[in-house]
Amino acid sequence: MAPSGSRSVDCWRVLYWIPVLFISLIVAWSYYAYVVQLCIETIENMGEKIVYLLLYHVLFIMFVWSYWQTIFSKPMNPLKEFHLSHSDKELLEREDRRESQQEILRRIAKDLPIYTRTMSGAIRYCDRCLLLKPDRCHHCSACDMCILKMDHHCPWVNNCVGFANYKFFMLFLAYSLLYCLFVTATDLQYFIQFWTNGLPDTQAKFHIMFLFFAASTFSVSLAFLFAYHCWLVCKNRSTLEAFRAPAFQHGPDKNGFSLGTSKNFRQVFGDEKKYWLLPVFSSLGDGCSFPTCLVNADPEQPSSPSGRNPSIKSAGESHQFPPKPLRESQSRLLNNGQSEGSEDRDKRGTSNPALTIEKET
């Protein structure tokens, strides 16, 4: 027999699918209301009917495709080098003193491309997944795993939105907004006829009325959400980073990963323009390391945009973190003169302040 604990977990996981089921039912009803009740039963002009049906199905297919990809794209695990080996796990568990644990983490992290820190200046460590967190990676309590470039956990897709599916999520918002706007615009004249008694007294007029209300309401909420995420893409920030700026050696820097609007956009949608509008994966990089605009680490030079100087390194805290070579797709983002300076700084690495173990759930 299965333990009662596992049965309760399975029950909760089933409940997580309720929002997805609700959206699916709304979409299925809207298809029936628009195609059958509006286009087939109500619209009499054959040319208008064909055009509406053709455009509607194009938007419907792209909307469902992007929604499906957002739901079923599996989160990508951090690369193996970020996970603790079996011997390191045992060594870390045996140590009771924080100083000893810090030394172990320093040794493991010294060759990894990790630039972000906790707010206290420590290397970000997940004691549930037993790994050193890559930059922009966070542990999701709902998924119970670390998610690369985590943006948020979305109940409407029952999945974490992160590096693996952020492009799909953006396209889902775009196509769902276009879908709702198209339905609202084409249904408007028949919605007006409903109130002026211009429609036959059939069940179609009730579908037409509720279809307009539903589509227009969703259009407003989707417009605000889509505009917000477009702003995040242009700034190269996640939702989590918008609320709490990522911390580097010199302190929190909300623009630490921003490379300019064009490069920020290509980091999510890729270099191939033919894939930008298609829900196929084309994002640049591996999700574990990202080009940064790190400020000059020299205390004599101006540091962060806010004018803060980096912390002066003390003895025993001069460990360097040379970055792992970026994939070719990432390196192309650093071709201009401004980015070359930041790449040179990446090659020098950043110093590692005193470490403590961060426990995030």
UniProtKB/TrEMBL annotation:
GO terms for molecular function: protein-cysteine S-palmitoyltransferase activity. Residues 301-312, 331-340 have a biased composition (Polar residues). Its EC number is 2.3.1.225. Residues 299-361 are annotated as: Disordered. It is a multi-pass membrane protein. It catalyses: L-cysteinyl-[protein] + hexadecanoyl-CoA = S-hexadecanoyl-L-cysteinyl-[protein] + CoA. PANTHER family: PALMITOYLTRANSFERASE ZDHHC16 (PTHR12246). This is Palmitoyltransferase. It comes from Onychostoma macrolepis.
